[in-house]
Amino acid sequence: MATKNNRVKSTNDLELKDRLVAINRVTKVTKGGRAFSFAAIVVVGNEDGVIGWGLGKANEVTAAIAKGVEAAKKNLIKVPVHKGTIPHEQSAKFGGSRIFLKPASEGTGVKAGGAMRAVLESVGITDVLAKSKGSSNPHNLVKATISALSELRSPAQIAQNRGVSIDKVFNG
Questions:
Q1: Looking at residues 10-22, what average pLDDT do you find?
Q2: What is the CB-side half-sphere exposure of residue 52 using CA atoms within 13 A?
Q3: N or C, which end of the chain has less CB nearby within 10 Å?
């Protein structure tokens, strides 16, 4: 995993927007009746290559969302976005969820469902083809999508690793 080298160090200068991916009501049955609490999975991003996710749990929905946003701000990563799409195909797996991301030409839009769409739009990707296979659990889909995005490498990184110019990366 390439998560260590693309972590974002400071959140002070970023204008992050949060998106609620899923909210889950949890019931604990006690002697005195049922006790309800909420778990919220939230994605934050600046729509310019920075993304993070968080899980918040509380007795009220608004408190759970607020906790999720705070948790998301603590694990931000930088994603290479190349002309509104991703630089290359990428697949990832988390739990029972498998995802596949493919770059798309300009004007295609974000062809992705539910939890994946929230993550991809928050990172600032405007054109991508995405497919989820296996489990549609929003927690696992968000984690698999962010895992795939963290493994993306920009053309400049590939050229630097190979010790060649960027033109050679594209033209072979």
A1: 81
A2: 25
A3: C
As a whole-number percent, the residues of the chain with pLDDT over 70 amount to 92
Rounded CA-CA distance 94/132 in Å is: 11
> HEC states along 49-70?
CEEEEEEEEECCHHHHHHHHHH
Query: In whole angstroms, what separates CA 88 from the centre of its chain?
Result: 16
Residue 172 CA to residue 166 CA, distance in Å, equals 10
Largest Cα–Cα separation, the chain: 70
Angle at 10 between CA 9 and CA 14, to 5 degrees: 125
Alpha carbons 87 and 44: distance in angstroms, whole number: 22
Q: How confident is the model at residue 5 (pLDDT cuts 50, 70, 90)?
A: low
34: which strand partners?
29
3-class DSSP assignment, residue 34: strand
Residue 136 backbone zone (phi > 0: left; psi -120 to 50: alpha; other: beta): alpha
